[in-house]
Amino acid sequence: MMFERMRAWARQVKRDGVTLWFAAQHPLTPWYAKLLGVFVVAYALSPIDLIPDFIPVLGYVDDVILLPALIWLTVRLVPAPVLAECRAKADEWMKTSGAKPTSKVGAVLVLAVWMLVTFALWQWAVQPWIRN
Q1: Of 2, 41, 53, 74, which is least surrounded by CB within 10 A?
Q2: What is the distance between the alpha carbons of residues 43 and 132, in angstroms, rounded to a whole number?
């Protein structure tokens, strides 16, 4: 029972990720929902995670908490008629293709975040140590 509910929730999150892909292209989606939607979709479809899965516990935080929360928030920003139309498109797309698309933009975004974090850590931790 609980396993089946979790499975249905996971399918819904996956479908809503694809829904946001369509909503970001819809002319009636507000600009702020498009902006957040593009970010969420790029990250969701990225082949690279912000927190790699091999890191115990933390590696799944983005998959289990962060990404669903961002998807939920973005879906709430999309007008109901647009959301219904985009969900229908997502359902049809998932039936015909069977797999989610991937995003090279998302991969570049994740790599940019990793480079920014690395640079910040270098400036904060290593650079002062080298000067002394």
Answers
A1: 2
A2: 39
* Amino acid at site 32: Y
C-alpha torsion sign, points 89, 33, 107, 58: negative
Phi, psi of 112 (to 5 degrees): -65, -40
CB atoms within 10 A of CB 8: 10
Cβ-Cβ contacts under 8 Å for 21 (sequence gap 6 or more)? 37, 41, 45, 90, 101
Pick from 98, 50, 44, 93: nearest CA to 71: 44
pLDDT in tens, 2-51: 778 877 777 788 888 888 989 988 999 999 999 998 888 887 777 677 77
Give just the sign of the alpha carbon dihedral 17, 54, 57, 3: positive
Q: What is the pTM of this model?
A: 0.66
Residues 58-109 pLDDT 10s: 777 777 788 888 889 999 999 999 999 999 998 888 888 766 666 677 677 7
CB 43 within 8 A of CB 2: no
